[in-house]
Amino acid sequence: MSKSERKSVLPSEPSHGYEFGGPLGAFATSVGLPLVCYLATFLCNDISGCPVPSALHPSSLTIAKLKEETGWPGFQGLISTKVTAWVLGYYCLSLVLQAALPGVVSEGVELSSGGRLKYKFNAFSSALTVIGVAATGTFIQGADFPLWTFIWDNYTQLITVNLGVAFSLACFVYARSFSVKAGNKEQRELAAGGHSGNLIYDWFIGRELNPRVTLPVFGTIDIKAFCELRPGMLGWVLLNLAFCAHQYKVYGYVSDSIIFITSFQALYVFDALYMEPAILTTMDITTDGFGFMLAFGDLAWVPFIYSLQAHYLAVYPVHLGYTGLAGLLAVQGFGYYIFRSANNEKNRFRTNPKDPEVAHLRYMETKSGSKLLISGWWGIARHINYLGDWIMAWSYCLPTGIAGYMVQQSSSLNDDPADGSIFGGTPTRSPVVQGEARGWGMGVTYFYVLYFAILLIHREMRDEEKCMRKYGKDWEEYRKKVPWRLIPYIY
């Protein structure tokens, strides 16, 4: 293969070494994080408590007792043919909506091998269609709408199926990446960091940059872009709504805390769906290959871990009151303002620097021709949008309060933890109490904010390395002008 032919397959940027701890880190992550999804489900449940009682008294812990407290179904109970069929049907529905509904066609950034890929975006209208159908069904059948009961009754099996889809996609795109040929008309190329030669690492990080398939009826599907915002992000909203329905069935009301979380997480999701073309300039699309890392993150981790707070509140409602809601609204509003304002400023500047909204901003021009903002939001910190994202994460965890509960069976509702309620109904069983579990459940309900901090810092470090390789001394100069990474005057 000649040098020019090789360039048309591989990115101009050479493989830049291992990330995520190399092959060992990739293996540990691929095994460990799926286990976290299951552990969060079994160790914080509606059978015995959150955490399970044995966790509070480890000296008396036995395997038999733990199985009883977690409702362990056995390995055969983790998978269901019926659930698998319905989940695959959900993915097919997403494909149908993408193909059938009108959308905006946008071009991605220029590829290393030249040219730009085209993308059809209609995730927002697709999600509205699904939510509209679900709303209609709920209006007719209430909390007993089969979608909501199906999600609650088969939650563990849903995790398994989505993990299976992520694993299968990762294997498919990895094997198919070896068919990338020089000078191909489909503009296929390998990701800079995904062709290390180590099978485990490349399978995890993603070997091909933008894997695509052409399917009958559906046309060309960009697998990475499809997974980025469609099944998992909408699945996150659907899970939260199912948890609201379950709380209503059990307690006879929907608490203000779960309404807050569900509403603002839905706002976050639909904001991302509405701004779908903006993903074309993100690291996920421009830099990372599509492997198990992104497949698992998009299809399993996001919906099942990001919805932990609503899942908790479905079992143990918390009443915030007007003061609590006002405080949370302030946190959420402040974070969202930073997040959306910073991202809008960046996108406007990249699209049209002469736009009146951004024309006044100062910037420095690099030798590569790129322009780096040094005023406005991006003059405050180099990744200021991540700060807004993290502040919003706090508003999702705080409604759970000092978390932890024990499941108590009683005949009265006098120990109801939430005096206030919305949409009152008839409860079907007594509520749980906190008891000695108070505070110990925070490891589950506040896990998101800790994980998200680690994620954002790691992503920021990857961004820095990428920009240093791309801009060299210009980036060093830029860092002098904008010294702070995420939090002004702190980090």
From TrEMBL:
Q: How does it sit in the membrane?
A: Multi-pass membrane protein
The cellular component terms of Gene Ontology attached to this UniProt record, alphabetical and capped at eight, are: endoplasmic reticulum membrane
Asked whether the UniProt record includes Ion transport among its keywords, one would answer no
- Residue ranges crossing the lipid bilayer per the database entry: 121-143, 155-175, 290-308, 320-339, 439-458
Secretion signal, residue range per the UniProt entry: none
* Swiss-Prot/TrEMBL GO biological process terms: ergosterol biosynthetic process
Q: Please give one Gene Ontology molecular function term for this protein.
A: Delta14-sterol reductase activity
Its subcellular locations are: Membrane
UniProt xrefs under Gene3D superfamilies? 1.20.120.1630
> Principal place where this protein is found?
membrane
Name the PROSITE patterns for this protein.
Answer: STEROL_REDUCT_1, STEROL_REDUCT_2
Q: By its UniProt entry, which Pfam families does this protein fall under?
A: ERG4_ERG24 (PF01222)
- The protein's superkingdom reads Eukaryota
Which keywords accompany this UniProt record? Lipid biosynthesis, Lipid metabolism, Membrane, Oxidoreductase, Steroid biosynthesis, Steroid metabolism, Sterol biosynthesis, Sterol metabolism, Transmembrane, Transmembrane helix
Q: Which InterPro entries match?
A: ERG24_DHCR-like, Sterol_reductase_CS
Would you identify the family this protein belongs to, as annotated?
Answer: Belongs to the ERG4/ERG24 family.
Protein name (database record):
Delta(14)-sterol reductase
Species of origin: Alectoria fallacina
